[in-house]
Each structure stands twice: as structure tokens, then as C-alpha cells.
Amino acid sequence: MAIRIEIESETAVSKRPARALVYENDQLVAEVIAEVDLKQGADDGYYHCVTLKKIMSKGGGVNILDQARREKRIVEAILYFASDEGKKYLPSMSRVVLFEFIAAVAEYLSGEAGVETYLEGGGGGERIYRTNKETAKIFERFGEKLPSAVRTPIQELITLRFVSDHGEKWHENSFENWFHTIAEPPITHSTFSLSVTTIEHIKTNAIPCFDAETINHLKAIADCMKKYIEKDLECIREHFGW
To answer: Does residue 35 contact residue 6 with C-beta atoms inside 8 Å?
Structure first.
């Protein structure tokens, strides 16, 4: 299930309420009032940070918004646990952290390490296609290890979807979108740590939303993720000059 949020405006003023459209698999399912913040990003200069505020139209949109919130909380918890509750550094590049998460999920479910990190194997179209195919097979065989309330959003978070619009083509992923919104990584440094404010927000607002079983699954995935993070950090320290 692909979720996409579009802002109905050419520009956005910081913290300005705006009308937003929520799409599920390219079908409009809800209109919402959103709080929009224009923030600087590493790739396209700026991106819209969207906080959903109020549902204007009911129906399927309620479920979509619930799923979006759950995805966000999962990403928050993963970043929190994988960084030892914010004590350790993370790569600032969203695609790098995404592939660390993908590798960790695949290892936790299958019991075997098999997915290369982004810095090891690159991230071209063929690699993305292969990774999507491999992880889909892993979920088909071992997905029942996770309860459905966690399995469905995690499967969405590790999937990269090909998008084409007005001649532009790219791969889109909801984990990366949430990563930018939650972590606000710097564009001038290759590594960063979660801010004190972010850590407190996650401890207060995200972690308490999960039951003990779910937290155990998320902690286990984050534990698998730590070695991939460290491997990428070593590569960054050796080869990156920023």
C-alpha cells in the first residue's frame, strides 16, 4: 500500500495550516488539514514537513492516516533504539539508513545476513529491483514472525517504489520521508545524532504507543541494524570528507 501526501499550494509558510490530499495507490482517499513546514533538505533544496491535523473527509482516509502514524512511530522507535537511545551517531543520508534498516529486517526475519548496505552495493535501479524482490520473498516465507500490526507497515517502509511524473523519474520510500521529518539530518555533515528534543519526543510520544511484544520486535531489529550502521560509519570515516 503506497501512501502519498500532496500539499495544495505552490509554496508553504512555516507552520501554516494548509489543505492536503492523501492518496492510496494513486487514488484520493482523504482530504486533511495539515500543518506545513518548509524545511531544507539534502537533495532537492527544500521539502515539505507535513503534520496531519484534522480529517476533512471520512472513509478510507481514517485507516490511511492511522497507518501513516504507525509508520512514523516505527521509524522513530527504530532510530531511537538503533542509536542506543540517541547516544550514538547515525549516517545523515536517508538512503544509507534505509538500506541498514532493510538489511536488519531481512536478517531478523530470516536469521541470515544477506542484504548489502547502500555503501557496499550501491543503489541503482537494478539493485533496488533486486532488493525489493529479495525482501518480498523473505516476508512471504518468514513474515508471520511479526504481528500484522507491525508487519504491514514495516513491509511498506522497506519498499522502494518507482515514480514517474512530468518526465522526472525516481524511487520513493516512506522510511526516507519519515527519516527527514523526524531526524532533520544536517546537509553539511555525513553523520549526526538525534537531538535532545527528538529523543524526548520519541520516549514520550512514540514508544508508549507500542505493546511489550512490538517493542521487543523493534528492539531486535534495531540490534541487527547496529552492525550495519557501524560498517557504514567506518566507510564514511574513511572515504567521506564532510
So the answer is: no
Domain residues of the chain, as ranges?
A: 65-239
pLDDT at residue number 40: 47
CA distance 230 to 185: 17
Q: Report the Cα 194 to chain-centroid distance in Å.
A: 15
Q: How far apart are CA 220 and CA 177, in angstroms?
A: 23
Q: Is 190 left (phi over 0), alpha (psi -120 to 50) or beta?
A: alpha
Nearest by Cα to 48 from 27, 20, 82, 87: 20
Sorting pLDDT into bands at 50, 70 and 90, what band is 169?
A: confident
Report whether pLDDT(9) > 70: no
Q: What is the pLDDT of residue 11?
A: 43
Of the candidates 14, 59, 56, the one whose C-alpha atom is nearest the C-alpha of residue 38 is: 14
Helix (H, G, I), strand (E, B) or coil at 184: coil
Look at residue 62 and tell me whether its pLDDT is greater than 80: no
For residue 234, the SS3 value is helix
Percent of the chain with pLDDT over 90: 50
First to last CA, the chain: 36
Place of cell 512514540: 206
DSSP H helices in 32-173? 60-82, 94-110, 118-121, 125-142, 148-157
Alpha-carbon dihedral 147, 148, 154, 159, rounded to 10 degrees:
140
- pLDDT of the residue at 96: 95
